[in-house]
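ok so i was messing around last nite and threw this chain in just to see what happens. nothing serious, just curious
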Amino acid sequence: MRRNRILTGNVGIGSTAPGAKLDVTANPATAVPVRIDNSSGGSDSQKSVSFTRASVEVGTITTTNANTAYNTSSDERLKKNIVDLVGGLDMVSRVRPRKFDWRLDGSHAIGFVAQELYKTYPQAVYAPEHGMWGVDYALEQWQQSRGEGK
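result:
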């Protein structure tokens, strides 16, 4: 089997000026920008994408015949100094899980509103100065990046 390697520069698919190591540009109305097809049979959860950092897996995207899961590593083997969170129950009682409709297509959902969650637990919210806010359900990443939870 022959393998191609690109050691420097950026690769563009559908782009003449790629702005990242792999830049895929497509109009979703005419073509699916990225498709990952796990062609193996069976209904067990199977890994489709693996994210690594320093050769350690830190997240995956897994699929079954019926759903897709976006997984952030939370394995006990990756952690040390595990202790109970003081005031954790109080914090949980102050967060506001909500039912809502997405403006884009009116679909119903359950989750958090980033701006509301920020008031109780800002470490769980991605709040850029410009742009849309998001909720990071992998709180340990925020704690590590801010030097908390030690």
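not much to say yet. The mean pLDDT is 80.
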